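Obj.: predict assembly geometry.
Materials: sequence records (below).
Method: joint structure prediction, all chains together.
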Amino acid sequence: MKLLSLIVVCLTGGLLLYGTADLPDWGDPNAPASLHLSNYYIENAIRDTEVPNLVTAVLADYRSIDTMLETAVVFCAGLACFLLLRDFTPKKDHHYRHVPTGVILHVKNPDRQVIVGNEFEEMDKEWLPPDTIIKTVCRMLIPFIQIYALYVVAHGDFSPGGGFQGGVILGSSFILLAISYNLKYLLKRVSEKFLGILSAAGVLVYMGIGLAAMVLGGNFLDYEKYAPIFGEHHIRALGMLGVEIGVGMSVTAVMVIIYINIVSEGKHDEGL
Amino acid sequence: MYWSINLVILIFVIVCALGAIYVKDLLATAILFGAYSFMMCLLWAIMGAVDVAFTEASVGAGVSTVFFVAAVFRTSRRTKD
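Observations (raw structure tokens):
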């Protein structure tokens, strides 16, 4: 059976390699892809949109509806992860840590609850105190990562980057916080409800910009109709910045939602 | 000069892909996938597709490796086959 699958894999790979021989060379000016549409984008994108980064101009302006539905797909991925993994069943036994002394209480009866005040805090069975070096390094690193993420989002139309990449970097800074401290520390700062609302709000910002353009009398996502409000200057770049912020919000929240649900099996205790 | 850098990175890509298949430790597989994504990111950057390279670096080498490690942390670290 293993031999058979190896033969099938080799045959398929060989056929694919044989097929690539007919593909046009890299950067070939006579390739079908660079004969029609690419030329138009390269020649007219700066005149049409005043955005130096052609990739962003194509993604967020010429093919904006495509990107909008991609954001919706990312949102659906987060939603599916939440619905599949989130576990709302209450824990059988509870562990509490007395903060000043470090004494740990183990309550086996699920009906009994220790009133969690300032002195006691609920903890997980597998909890280990986070290392001071890791905590300090991550605490110093995270603000820079977040500022870089905001830079990537804001400069999407002038340099490589954009809402998707910036959102992923911003989300991974939250994930770094959850790894270096623990998951509860993160969830105290950005609650699950906030993340859910943020991921939906990102898609809504995108669609809202499109619909507002329709209200102002243009086509869906026609940024030029905002000119009476924001002025003619770089109006399309401004519209692209708006939709990139929407994408960034959605992607940030979805990355964090997927992480916290995978790493704690949906229980949201002090995981990895 | 140019093609030799390409060749070295392509060999690294293939080595990482084969290693990810044959290594029994799933944590090592996750790390190898991260290395694979980073090599692909370098290839995109060489071909001039900077935006794609950026996405590959942040999503492929960054966040998806974290997701794999998290999944390994919650399941088993050894494969059965």
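Conclusions so far: The longest strand of chain A covers residues 94-98.
To do: check interface contacts against the pulldown list.
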